[in-house]
Amino acid sequence: MGRKIIITGGAGYIGSHCVKRLGELGYEILTIDNLSSGNRWAVLYGKLEVVDLADNSRIEQIVKDFRPDAVIHFAASIVVPESVQNPVKYYKNNTENTLNLLKILVENNVDKFIFSSTAAVYGIPESVPVGENSPLMPINPYGRSKMMSEMILRDFSSAYGLRYISLRYFNVAGADPEGKIGQAYKESTHLITRALKCAKGDFPHLEIYGTDYPTRDGTCIRDYIHVTDLVDAHIVALEWLFQGGESEVFNCGYGHGYSVKEVIEVAKKVTGIDFKVIETERRPGDPPELVADCSKIKSKLNWTPQYDDLEFIIKTAWDWERKISFPSSQ
To answer: Tell me, what is an example of a GO biological process annotation in this record (predicted)?
Structure first.
């Protein structure tokens, strides 16, 4: 194919799966990652530049030398509780670095951009499933940092002709079905990964935060999307931009959700291990239910998910979790 793509955060969980898929499709890839939470071994294709996005002069030189046809921007800080405790980090890393990157791209005539956004921009939605036109009411610095980046993108698109796709992720889970890569955070905050680490014996128990929500079993309901399906959403978004498509925002989920208790039940079934579960108090700011209306991306980009099956999602994550005795962080 020969098209040149810069992927920021390409050594991280979702970014590395995207690098793998684009590499398989014949794209020429350059990954930018500071390896603060990513892993060198996870970048299976192309070149890796270990550099922080805050290093504007070096980022600009990389863009000038590589001359990408498009940029996919995964690099971000993503832990909600940390964003509440340390908002400076989130506004600097997620918003300021995105602004500086976009400025460099526009000045170097790179006009196609795919942005990793999040369902956190919706906050606690008034109704579910949540459509792209639902009000943006983020309730933490993480969500606000992403919402601000989306606003910057809209303004850059109007002012400078940048064409972008913003993909609002719901709950990403699972691992590469071929078992080559997967999630590799020692302190993962994701429910499925934590459940599997409990099954593996890495944690003594799994906590359920709140059992009195207005849901079918009292626990929070979330829309879980397999990482490979999410990556394929990036591929169709990229092709949309290359074919001259206009800027757009899309939800990425399956349009239905599972409760915390349902996820735990399937995790126990897949692993065959009855790990310990403790019910505790609600966490502040958890929406009772967060499910995507993903009809827009299906109709407009003809995105067709392949792995809409919770048992399969958890099985791929479990296969990966058992495979790694935690690789070295670098």
So the answer is: galactose catabolic process via UDP-galactose, Leloir pathway
